[in-house]
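ok trying this again, last paste got cut off
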Amino acid sequence: MRLVLASTSPARLALLRAAGIEPDTVPPGVDEEAVVAAAEAERGARLPAEELVQLLARRKAEAVAASLGTTDALVLGGDSAFAFGGTTFGKPHEPAIAAARWQAHRGGTGVLHSGHHLIDARTGEGFGETAQASVRFAADLEDDEITAYVASGEPLSVAGAFTIDGLAGPFIEHVDGDPSTVVGLSLSTLRRLVRRTGTSWPSLWNRPLDR
């Protein structure tokens, strides 16, 4: 069985490869801001983080599945957002925004929400689930460490302005939940979704493990 990743995220790709899966990657081409704006306009309120990531994961999977048509493949869409102090944060994009977030988050705990939507391209049936993991940041993080981290560029294009599988790993003291959720894809959640399609998880293994 072929797994198609509706994403160009290097972190999600690396997670799948480490788990023995070499997916096909297809950019979903979804205007995320427009999708969220339309959903929030219809509701008349901001979307909670859990609903936001699930909406975007589904739209990404649907866009790629539609381009593939009926075929022997499972199509995975994913999205992540970080909730802290009642506010939902996506990618900061700008250094000043990333720095401000780290200043506010140090010593605190937030929740990383990772949305998953898997479509069985044989039947068109889709399954969605959102995983959460709480993240506690080091309280003794110094200003020069924040400055250096932001200057590295790593936090600019990741949800919440951090990732545990890179330079920010030493700045995170505790994770409660599936650690891969914080990277951007909960492998345990994906396994459950794969099994719901009647597919065996080991049937996706198609690459040798890195040793």
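PB: full thing came through this time. Strands lie at 2-5, 24-25, 73-84, 87-89, 109-120, 125-137, 172-176.
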